[in-house]
Specification:
The chain is α+β, with helices and mostly antiparallel strands. The protein has helices at about 10-20, 35-40, 100-130, 145-165, 180-190, 195-205, and strands at about 50-55, 75-80, 80-90, 130-135, 135, 140, 170-175, 215, 225, 235, 240-245, 260-270, 275-285, 295-300, 315-320, 320, 330-335, 340-345, 355-365, 365-375, 380-395, 400-405. It has six helices and 22 strands.
């Protein structure tokens, strides 16, 4: 029987299936925003390289009979697309091979694309997420060495998401780096579990879904290094917004991505706006050099109104830098699906002719891949280019949590 030759449409379909299976972090995030691009394109309108994801408005409760009309404020989060991919060449005789015989090359090529999509997403998530566990002022990041410590990794992260009103709808995910995964497999092995779960964990060497979290291991988990900065004083009376005034910073750089807290500032439940009694955490959004008198933070500190996220404070004391100075921490993540968004948009596929032999774009479940084949007559090579057009955004980063591991 002769081989069934691999056309671009067949290769694109196979490539998309491989990509879906290789993604770890991406598999647990919101991928519904592809339609904002492709849907508008079908109507003759393209929003360009950036869209603004609109978040729902919030309102405050009115007590009593008299109406108090409230203005509607809608906030948006920008999501910017970028293009990338990988390119392969096949000699003429290789073009006679079936898809199955080409699959090894496809697997390796798609792994490169999947790796980069996940890497960019994990880096974006860590730099935009303020919630953190397994960390303390000037210390933390300990490797869980017992069953109790391993269980607490899960329960502390779930508690953070609960305090931020993340739904318990089976759409919470933990992404662990190799080090945390290895520790959790060992630490959880002594707990009571069904034989099926223990068998899977033993057979794969990976933690199985447990304690309300879907689980995946990803080598692309980012690493954050705290700078040498030491905490100075912050007089909090009247302060709010995305930049907080402090006494001139000292000791060294306060690095972007560092988690900090301010005196007397506590997180609130996003619906009741009542204090949780837990210090509100913020992430530094740009490097702060020695001598600076303000720290840029995210989320913005909002102390009243429908978007209130923390309590006001009149305390004047040292702010808190989480983790030890000049120390690197792996940034494992627990998050709800809606915390982060990936838009992967179908690319235009040129028609055959004028150098293009064949082209195809395949889309499914919020992912899209374009394959184009063209010919290099000098070297007698058929060249395939695989392209993706995608972008990341932290739409609800308060529904995420970083697990520090030194």
């Amino acid at each position: 029987m002769s081989n069934s030759l691999a056309t671009c449409s067949i290769i694109a379909k196979e490539t998309l299936a491989i990509l879906q299976n290789m993604l770890s972090f991406t598999s647990g995030v919101n991928r519904d925003w592809q339609d904002e691009f492709s849907g508008n394109q079908s109507r003759g309108y393209s929003p360009g390289a950036t869209i603004n994801i609109r978040k729902p408005p919030r309102y405050t409760y009115r007590a009593g009979r008299v109406a108090v009309p409230q203005a509607t404020t809608e906030t948006t989060i920008p999501l910017t697309l970028s293009q990338g991919g990988v390119d392969l060449s096949f000699l003429s005789f290789e073009q006679t091979l079936s898809l199955q015989q080409k699959e090894r090359k496809l697997q390796a090529a798609v792994a490169t694309v999947a790796n980069e999509i996940d890497r960019q997403g994990l880096f974006m998530a860590y730099q935009n997420t303020a919630n953190a566990t397994n960390i303390a002022s000037g210390a933390g990041g300990a490797t869980p060495a017992t069953s109790l410590a391993s269980t607490q990794i899960f329960t502390d992260a779930n508690r953070k998401l609960d305090e931020m009103a993340a739904p318990r709808d089976k759409q919470r995910t933990m992404i662990a780096g190799p080090a945390l995964n290895a520790s959790l497999v060992s630490g959880l092995s002594g707990l009571f579990n069904s034989q099926d779960k223990l068998s899977k964990q033993y057979g794969t060497g990976l933690v199985v879904d447990a304690l309300g979290l879907n689980f995946a291991m990803d080598q692309n988990v980012a690493t954050h290094t705290n700078g040498a900065a030491t905490a100075t004083n912050a007089a909090m009376s009247g302060q709010s917004g995305s930049s907080i005034t402090v006494t001139a910073t000292a000791g060294g750089t306060l690095t972007k991505g560092t988690v900090i807290g301010f005196p007397g500032v506590f997180a609130v439940n996003p619906q009741s706006r009542q204090s949780t009694g837990v210090q509100m955490l913020f992430v530094v959004t740009a490097d702060v050099l020695v001598g600076a008198t303000s720290i840029p933070i995210s989320p913005a500190m909002v102390t009243s109104g429908p978007f209130q996220n923390c309590t006001p404070s009149t305390t004047s004391a040292a702010y808190t830098i989480y983790g030890a100075a000049s120390t690197a921490y792996q940034q494992n993540l627990v998050y709800h699906r809606d915390a982060y968004t990936l838009a992967c948009v179908p690319l235009w596929a040129p028609a055959g002719g004028k150098g293009v032999i064949d082209s195809s774009t395949m889309s499914d479940d919020g992912l899209s891949v374009r394959v184009i084949q063209f010919y290099d007559g000098v070297n007698d090579n058929a060249i395939f280019r695989f392209d993706v057009l995608f972008g990341w955004a932290a739409t609800y980063p308060e529904l995420g949590n970083r697990i520090f591991l030194a």
